[in-house]
Amino acid sequence: MSVKQVQRVDRVVIRFAGDSGDGMQLTGDRFTAETAALGNDLATLPNFPAEIRAPAGTVLGVSSFQLHFADHDVMTPGDHPDVLVAMNPAALRSNLGDVRRGGTLIVDSDEFTKRNLARVGYDANPLEDGSLEAYQLHALPLTSRTVEALAEFGLTRKDAERSKNMYALGLVSWLYNRPTEGTERFLRTKFGKRPQILEANLAAFRAGYNYGETVEGFAVTYEIAPAPAPTGTYRNVTGNTATAYGLVAAAHRAGLPLVLGSYPITPASDILHALSGMKRFGVTTIQAEDEIAGIGAALGASYGGALGVTTTSGPGLALKAETIGLAVMLELPLVIIDVQRGGPSTGLPTKTEQADLLQAMYGRNGEAPLPVVAPRSPADCFDAAVEACRIALKYRTPVMLLSDGYLANGSEPWLLPAVSSLPDLTVEFTTQPNATAEDGTPVFRPYLRDPETLARPWAVPGTPGLEHRIGGLEKADGSGEISYDPDNHEKMVLLRQAKVDGVDVPDVEVDDPGAATGERADVLVLGWGSTYGPIAAAARAVRAGGQRVATAHLRHVNPFPANLGQVLRSYRRVVVPEMNLGQLRMLLRAQYLVDVIGYNRVRGLPFTSSELAEVISAHLGGPSDEPTDQTLRDLSADTTDDLTGAGR
Amino acid sequence: MTSIPLQIPTYRGSTEGLRDVPHLDEGVALKKKDFTSASEVRWCPGCGDYAILAAVQGFLPELGIRRENIVCISGIGCASRFPYYLESYGMHSIHGRAPTIATGLATSRPDLSVWIVTGDGDSLSIGGNHLIHALRRNVNLTILLFNNRIYGLTKGQYSPTSEIGKVTKSTPAGSVDAPFDPVSLALGAEATFVARTTDSDRKQLTSVLRAAAEHRGAALVEIFQNCPIFNDGAFDVLKDREQAEARIVRLVDGEVIRSGDRVAVRAAGGGVEMVPEAELGGREPLVHDVAATDPSQAFALARLSEPGMGSVPMGVFRSVARPTYDDLAREQVAAAQEKAGGPATDADLEALLAGNDTWSVA
Where is the Thiamine pyrophosphate enzyme TPP-binding domain (chain B) (predicted)? Predict the structure, then answer.
């Protein structure tokens, strides 16, 4: 065995790319788990086609998984991979444009056949024509080496080839000195009942690892030290899993059963899957006949005294609009989780976007306000889900939680909370009359509000003496009887608005490192939702370059924090990056008359920190530069790039 | 795909619909007025809904269950005003969606007797999808479908049960839609209890409602209901004593299916036809069996109803027992909790959050 040099680096971005059927998501998941076990901070970005199995070997069928890990806190999955593992020409073609110049390419040369090259438009073999000179190219026959390694198992060639992702994982695990026990344990669990497949995968994984040890091509291996982090116990978690956990934790802290009514839709379905396995925690999941029935079941359960939740995405939210309006009218707790994806219509089912904000805010008939909460990172989905439940239960209102595809499938380390540290969400149902009729008899008035929160009593069916009717028709203030009285209607509209406006929301915190020493920044970058990571990373880069910039991030989009107007007015310029055409910007301008500037892209992908750093730097010029919203750029250039899949 | 055998038999008979609903204490009885709310009833004078409301208010005390454990959920339409007039818990929800809300409620609250009041537009047009799924899931619900074959609240457009050619405000040249038969639809949707009755026969209405309420599972009761304003007289041929005698096919469990001097026999094509008893010619008259596992005969009977109403079966078409969605869903939760040793503690939740793969930072 040759002696290898070990080099310490502080951060690496690695992307595994292959055909949808090549197992790239699993490979990425395993490498992530190995990395988490080492104590590196990390963030991940899976990217896969909407089709379950797009045509093999085509650019459309490429599935990838990107992981950014470092010895310091990681804000994003990384802009430009340092390492690309490409299992076929299509994967190389569609991902090469993102790879850092000088980066490492590990390519399965067996797949670079004439036929496969032609299918994705390569005239010559890029492994041989010198076009990859700017990269450290490792063209290795991964497929045939895998087949050789598995010769003794008596598998068909096709079955043996299926383990090539484990071979690649073994090789990359060696390259970055990852521990292998976790993956071996994982394989034993996954394939425990199929010993032949288990042994083949283990053998492929080990063969890949050993290949790294013996091959001459790799001069060094890399080590990334653990990232400093608050003490405690961590795990890696995706946004959808964290959301499911947050819901269960909230129900537990409220002492209520959780009822999820849902209809499968990408990328929200994993929340349904996760919750359906948590029956032990008093969770009931109803997979309804459609989106409308999903929210209907959730609302029915809330009416009966459970914590009702529905989950959806994109077009599903449109279908739920009428029932959300009913929930606004009934003033019952309900949590609606929208995992935003590219729209309109079916749009980009597996890609991310933030374009449902205005629909969340206003997408109902009539004046139908509801609180809107947005998580900012995968692990933060837990806290955001707890917060959405807290508001719903305290104020007896539907609450919208706006996650997105990037958060849903992305992952990061999560410092596990102590359950006792979570807010106490205990609810008291009303069991006694709350008013007195003119003749002195005690009566129940279902719309008599708590003077502080404006919440109405929650008297569930089965409570003797409080029998009452509720419904979608306008109600008389207090009594809840049907009322068509003009003044009463106006009062009720104002009361429902006042209740939402009065939700207790903490002030937004501004990160302006120079402010303490009188060196305030001129420019504030304000975000909401999943843009937190790219904005924070961009600000860090800008500050590292010696410039000043302030950042703030909204967890509560409705109502806004009370100090937000003052924050906006205290900066010369406010820049709002969003993965939409300026929806938060519109709300801010309308409410505060502050001319915030947008940076808006809708490519189905999260912002990169480098593009945001450029945007921020451009705004740091003198006061004379003309502020303009940046949305549409040179369409012809962009479109061509996107169609060929060559990235930006 | 793995499928787990849930041991779901289809068995005959089911009268346990109210099994988990708290009953009144011994010696306590409610009266009709206990189910009469203070709200002024605002249906049009002469509306068939009055008779149904009175029948329901009058018969509910017979069930012996606590009033606060009865919930009536409706959608939108004239019929859907019903909950306001019934002194119990109730929700006047949105158009067509009552079954969805009732499904969530019934699944999470076995101690409630959950009723749906709906009309032909609400349940068969905008809410058709939810109705069939509530029926096939067999959620423990009692569904009263007021069928007046017209849209009343929107002032007189044709409905999905209106006869083809119907001239209405929206179809001045006659409607070209073929109608649904609610009973056929329900049987096709695997409903475990399907019945038909009418607003004008209090005795039959009450007996059918009672059977429906006591059925464990989804019970659909179609109630012919006259709209005196927009479709007056739609069911007059069934109300005239003489004509009714010749047209109504009475469905009585265990008895020969007959209408006046006609009896039901198996038709050549596999269906059912009504022939004068005197002309049987050796053919065997059909005996009604509500609990037949095979719904074919019930369906064939449902097909007797045509718009001309020459032969209209009334009564319980089908009443079979099959485990309900809500019971099975609750059993899964209970089983998971029992297996884990009882309700979840903070430590259990922390173990869930931690998963299988954690690391510590000291």
Answer: 77-223
Assess B91–A contact: CB distance below 8 Å, yes or no.
yes
Q: 3-class SS at B39?
A: coil
B356 to chain A nearest CA, in Å? 9
Distance in Å, alpha carbon of B102 to nearest chain A alpha carbon: 6
Question: Residue written as tokens 């598998």?
Answer: A155
| Per-residue pLDDT band at A356 (split at 50, 70, 90) | very high
Q: Which residue has the tokens 């109730």?
A: B90
pLDDT along chain B (362 residues), means of 10: 53 74 94 96 95 96 96 97 97 98 98 98 98 98 97 95 95 96 97 95 92 96 96 92 91 94 93 95 95 95 88 96 96 97 96 89 80
Decide if B209 is inside a domain: yes
> CA end-to-end span of chain A, whole Å?
42
- B77 closest CA partner among B126, B142, B130: B126
Question: Which residue range forms the structural domain that includes residue B44?
Answer: 32-256+287-335
What's the pLDDT score for residue A224?
Answer: 84
Touching check for B333 and chain A: CB below 8 Å? yes
The domain that holds B246 is classified in CATH as 3.40.50.970
Question: Residue B127 corresponds to which amino acid?
Answer: G
Q: How far is CA A173 from CA A2, A30, A165, A169, A444, in A?
A: 18, 10, 12, 6, 66
CA distances from B338 to A248, A280, A286, B56, B109 (A): 18, 8, 21, 40, 19
Report helix, strand or coil for A152: helix
Which residues in chain B are contacts of A233 at CB distance < 8 A? 354, 358-360
Q: How many domains are contained in chain B?
A: 1
Give the predicted TM-score (pTM) of the model: 0.90
Q: Do A249 and B353 touch (CB under 8 A)?
A: yes
Classify residue B124 by its DSSP letter.
I
**CA–CA min distance B124, chain A (Å):** 15
Residues of chain A positioned with their CB less than 8 A from the CB of B353: 235, 245, 249, 416-417, 419
pLDDT tens per residue, range A47-80: 888 777 778 888 888 999 999 999 888 989 998 9
B362 touches chain A (CB under 8 A): yes
- Sequence-ordered list of residues with C-beta below 8 angstroms from that of A291, at least 6 positions apart, any chain: A263, A265, A312, A316, A319, A320
Cα dihedral angle (B168, B169, B172, B174), rounded to 10 degrees?
-30
ipTM, two decimals, is 0.96
Q: Are B312 and B305 in contact (CB under 8 A)?
A: yes
Ordered by where they begin, the domains of chain A are 5-223 (3.40.920.10), 234-421 (3.40.50.970), 428-504 (no CATH), 510-634 (3.40.50.920)
